[in-house]
Design a protein that fits this description.
single chain; mainly beta; WD repeat; BEACH domain-containing protein; BEACH_dom; WD40_rpt
C-alpha cells in the first residue's frame, strides 16, 4: 500500500508509475501456486507412501508408520489418512503407451500410478533394486505439488454417495468419467491435467452409475450410464476423437440406445460388446438383460432374499455375478439360469473377475 511507504521518494515514484501505466499486479498465475511440502512427505520413501495410498482396511483418523534407519532404529510418523480409496482401475497391458493404476478417493482426488511391470524387478541383484515396487506412486501426490491437477472440484448432487459405480476409466488411462452431478450429466476429465473435456446430457435425473465395454482396435468402445429416471443410455466412445460421439467434445451427442424396464433408480450395470448384452439392476427390483439395441430379453430371478442388487459384473464367457444387499452373491448364465448362490458375512464394496476363466 502507498500509505505504508516509509520513504517519500519511493511513494511518489509508485504514484507516477500508476498514473502512466496503471496499477499492475506483480505477477499473474494461470494455476495456483503449489503448497509447500511438509517434512513428513520429504522423509517418507515411496514404498511407505504406497502403503498409505492402499490401506488394507478402512482407514481410521491416523496411523503410526515406523521405518528403520541405517542403524536399525525406528522412527515414527503419524500419517493422516483423510478419506478412503473408493475406486481402483488398472490398465497395465504390455501394448499400452502409459500403463497405470488409477485410484480415486471419496473426495474425488485421483492418482495416476505408473506401472513398470514385474520384468527386471525380481531378478535384479542390486539391493536397492531388488525390492523396488513395480508401481510408481503418482509424483504429484507424493510431493504434494500440482495436486490441483488431480482434484475434481465440480459439485455433485448432495444425495449421491461416491462409490466405485460412479467412475469409469478409458482403456488407455487418459480419461476418467464421473457420474452423480446435480445437472443430470456425467462428465469426462483428462487424467493428465485434471481438466474437464466433455459434459454429456441425456438423462432426466441424476446419473447414478457408469460402465464400459471392452475396447476395440483404435480405442473405440461403448459407455453405459444408468440414472434415477430408471433408464439406461448406451453411448459410443470414439478413440480417435477421445470423446463420446464422433464429433468434437462440444457438440451435442445422442445415445445409441435407450434401455427401459426398471421401475426405480438404476444402481449397477455392465455391458459386454462381444456378446451384445447389457445387464443392469435397480434399487428395488430384479436385474434385467437387454440387447445393445434396447430390446428387453429376460429377467434374472434370484432367491427370495436377493431383492436389492448393489454390484454387478458380466464376463465375456456368458456369466454374470451379482452382489445383493445383506451379503448375497448369485451367479447367472446369460440365458437367465441361476448357477450358484452363496451368502457372506462381509459388506462387499467391489470385486472383479478375470477376463479368461
Amino acid at each position: 500500500m502507498l500509505t505504508q511507504k516509509e520513504e517519500y521518494p519511493d511513494c511518489k515514484a509508485v504514484e507516477s508509475q500508476i498514473r502512466s501505466f496503471g496499477q499492475t499486479p506483480c505477477k499473474l498465475l494461470i494455476e495456483p501456486h503449489p503448497p509447500r511440502s511438509s517434512a513428513m512427505q520429504v522423509s517418507l520413501s515411496p514404498s511407505w507412501c504406497m502403503m498409505c495410498a492402499f490401506p488394507a482396511r478402512p482407514p481410521a483418523d491416523s496411523v503410526d508408520v515406523h521405518r528403520p534407519d541405517a542403524a536399525g532404529c525406528r522412527h515414527g510418523a503419524e500419517v493422516s489418512l483423510q478419506l478412503p480409496v473408493v475406486h481402483v482401475s488398472a490398465n497395465t497391458q504390455p501394448g499400452l503407451t502409459n500403463p497405470a493404476i488409477i485410484t480415486v478417493t471419496a473426495n474425488r482426488l485421483f492418482a495416476v500410478n505408473k506401472w513398470h511391470g514385474l520384468t527386471g524387478h525380481q531378478s535384479s541383484s542390486a539391493p536397492e533394486q531388488q525390492y523396488q515396487l513395480p508401481v510408481e506412486i503418482d509424483p504429484l501426490i507424493v510431493s504434494n505439488v500440482g495436486t490441483h491437477r488431480r482434484q475434481i472440484t465440480d459439485l455433485l448432487d448432495q444425495s449421491i454417495q461416491v462409490s466405485s459405480q460412479c467412475f469409469v476409466l478409458t482403456a488407455d488411462n487418459r480419461f476418467l468419467l464421473l457420474a452423480g452431478f446435480w445437472d443430470k450429466s456425467f462428465r469426462i476429465y483428462s487424467t493428465d491435467t485434471g481438466k474437464l473435456t466433455q459434459i454429456v446430457f441425456g438423462h432426466r435425473d441424476v446419473v447414478t452409475c457408469l460402465a464400459r465395454s471392452e475396447s476395440y482396435i483404435g480405442g473405440d468402445c461403448y459407455m453405459l450410464s444408468g440414472s434415477r429416471d430408471a433408464t439406461l443410455l448406451l453411448w459410443h466412445w470414439s478413440g480417435k476423437h477421445c470423446s463420446i460421439g464422433n464429433g468434437t467434445p462440444t457438440e451435442f451427442v445422442t445415445p445409441r440406445a435407450i434401455l427401459t424396464g426398471h421401475d426405480c433408480e438404476v444402481t449397477c450395470a455392465s455391458v459386454c460388446a462381444e456378446l451384445g448384452l447389457v445387464i443392469s439392476g435397480c434399487k428395488e427390483g430384479p436385474c434385467l438383460i437387454h440387447s445393445m439395441n434396447g430390446d428387453l430379453l429376460r429377467t434374472l430371478e434370484g432367491p427370495e432374499d436377493c431383492v436389492c442388487p448393489r454390484l454387478l459384473l458380466a464376463s465375456t464367457e456368458g456369466h454374470c455375478v451379482i452382489y445383493y444387499d445383506r451379503g448375497h452373491f448369485c451367479t447367472y448364465s446369460v440365458n437367465g439360469k441361476l448357477l450358484g448362490h452363496i451368502e457372506v458375512d462381509d459388506s462387499i464394496r467391489c470385486y472383479n473377475m478375470p477376463e479368461k476363466e
